[in-house]
Target: Aminotransferase class I/II-fold pyridoxal phosphate-dependent enzyme
Amino acid sequence: MQDEGHALAWVGQFAQHAGPRYLQIAQFIEQALASGVLRPGDRLPAQRRLASLLQVDLTTVTRAYDVARQRHLLEGRGARGTYVAAPKAELGQLLDLSMIIPPPPAGIDFDELLRQGLAQVLLRTDSSMLMNYHLGGGSAADRAAGALWLAPLFGPIEHDCISVCAGAQSALAALIMALSPAGGTILAEALTYPGLLNAAQALGRRVQAVASDADGMCPDALEQACRQHGASLLYLNPTLQNPTGHTMPAARRLELLRVCARHGVMIIEDDPYSLLADTAPPPLAASAPAQVAHIATLSKCLAPGLRTAFVLLHSAALRERFMTALRALVLMATPLTSALTTQWLHDGTAQQLLQGVRQEARQRQRLASQLLAGRSSHDSANLTPADCAIHIWLELPTYWSASTLAQVAQAEGLAVSPASAFSTGPQPPEAIRIALGSIADEARLRAALRKLSELLARRPGQSRSVVV
Model:
């Protein structure tokens, strides 16, 4: 029988800005399980008793226990009470560190926000409009919502310069069609977003690598590439870059803009992560609005299911070309999700979600740094715990190649992304990208990172002993 002091050892301090108290209680349980303060089979206090001890109402504790049960942390045993659940067996399920998605926002009941948001949409919008065609790149309200989302980076924006798209990938493909000729060349960094490589191949364009240094793409190398290849389009992901997590300094951005201006090269600025950064330099599009098409998606900092991206393009003629190309790919963004996105942006829910994602991402960066410290080819500083990034770049020990590590990890139920998936050059580095949001449960993420750390400590060909 546990004494009361031990039974409450898992309870933390309520924080003023960490979300509703019932979610904080559920998070206390989750953190205590991860740290070993609580173990499977431990009995928790009765709800009424816990409410009295914490000086909260009974409903708060009831909701907290309900959330913890939904997360498979607790189980009810009838009259015997509530107990910490045994780990749920997930036979054969891959621990996926390969897909970049935002982690579950800290301190937020996403289900409740979704119910409230959809209720507001249905209250304010004719349902027939939500089931009809919308052909204009977003309604006036949708474009105004986009302006709100981009305001921290750009300040006030003319709403007509914004187009609403069904995600960044279709926007990227349409911009490639609108801004480069068939068979043309797109310049990009040697390690770049795989979606660019896929879109360019499908659309009959060639991606040409441009050399980079510690500050990003080299202006001299870009100058030479513009002369050599006659390219009309440059692709950049300058903030918390995918895959490396690097952020290009402001001075380097201006140097690249000057090179592109001399050669008449347009720039696609793919910028899904700036609002996750603590301090990001101004976007290229803020310095050269006529020269840059800026893409901002909500998929990487709120939720992929919203399928909403905003494209900022100041030239009316280029916007028309872009919209023509976009309609050939995706006729419209889904009205229901667009309406939900607009509702959340106007009522502040999106900003609340963003702060929750940032908080959780920062915690996951700390966790990865702890568990993978010393596992890179140099030292723990080679992890890129940049701001609130939701991915890190790990240079491997010399005895591992990225392709071999990815194959061995896959065989052991762990998915990571080798550098070859991002490479536009002939010889990718021996490194992997690790996504920190694709495993929702923190305890499972901890297990995945610990498994990766153990794998990195082994050498290729070393297998675990099997005893029968």
Notes: The chain has three domains: 7-84, 95-110+358-457, 111-350. Confidence is low (pLDDT under 50) at residues 378-385.
